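User: Sorry, folds how?
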Amino acid sequence: MSSPQVEPPQARMNAHYRHVLRELPTNAERDVRLARAEGNRTATARAQARLDTLRATLEIYAAAHLHAHGERPWPREAAG
C-alpha cells in the first residue's frame, strides 16, 4: 500500500494563485456586463476602468516574472 503523494506547499500555493488569477478577469468582465445591462454609464465606466487596470497590472507582473525567471507565470490567454 503506497501513501498518496503530498504536494509541496509551494506547489499548492502556486496552484491556488493561478486559480485566483484566472477568476479575477472573469469577475471584472462580469461587472462590466452587469453595469452595461443596467444602463448605468458611470458604473460601466468604473467597471471598465477596473478591468483595464487589472489587465495592465497582470501584464506588468507577467513581464517582470518573465524578466526575472525566463518564463511567464501563466499562459498569456489566462491573463485576459
In short: The two ends are 44 Å apart (CA to CA). The helical segments are 9-38, 41-69. Residues 3 and 70 are 35 Å apart (CA to CA). The mean pLDDT is 84.
